[in-house]
Design a protein that fits this description.
Layout lengths: L3 H10 L8 H15 L14 H14 L5 H10 L3 H41 L1
Helix pairs in contact: 1-5, 2-3, 2-5, 3-5
């Protein structure tokens, strides 16, 4: 089954117009999706002067976006990250986490529908 809206969203986030290299945006998306699925997360290879601090921000974004603080972003800006770079990586992370959770939800609905169809067949 084609999932055009989700594919278009991912393509837009990974498009060539970004300031941040596609490889970094894609890594952030995949990392966040893996977090959503509860699996082992790939090690993030991130650009810039403070990659560990940036990884921490993206980890927080993927797991608990509401916990990201202005201070975290300001510290990374002070370390030398451009606002556009941070924005693109945060968006890529949020989209990756969201699409990962969406996949989990769709799989749960499909499983429920299969089970419900089996129950209906057993009633006949």
């Amino acid at each position: 089954m084609e999932d055009q809206p989700a594919e278009r969203l991912a393509s837009a986030v990974l498009g060539p117009e970004g300031r941040t290299e596609v490889v970094h945006r894609e890594a952030a998306m995949k990392h966040a999706s893996a977090i959503a699925h509860g699996g082992r997360t790939p090690v993030l290879s991130l650009p810039g002067p403070e990659p560990e601090a940036l990884a921490g921000l993206l980890e927080t974004t993927a797991r608990h976006a509401y916990r990201v603080t202005d201070e975290q972003v300001a510290a990374l800006r002070s370390a030398g990250y451009a606002e556009g770079t941070l924005f693109e990586l945060i968006v890529a992370t949020a989209v990756g986490a969201g699409l990962g959770r969406r996949q989990i939800g769709l799989a749960a609905v499909a499983e429920w529908e299969r089970a419900a169809a089996g129950d209906r067949r057993g009633e006949a």
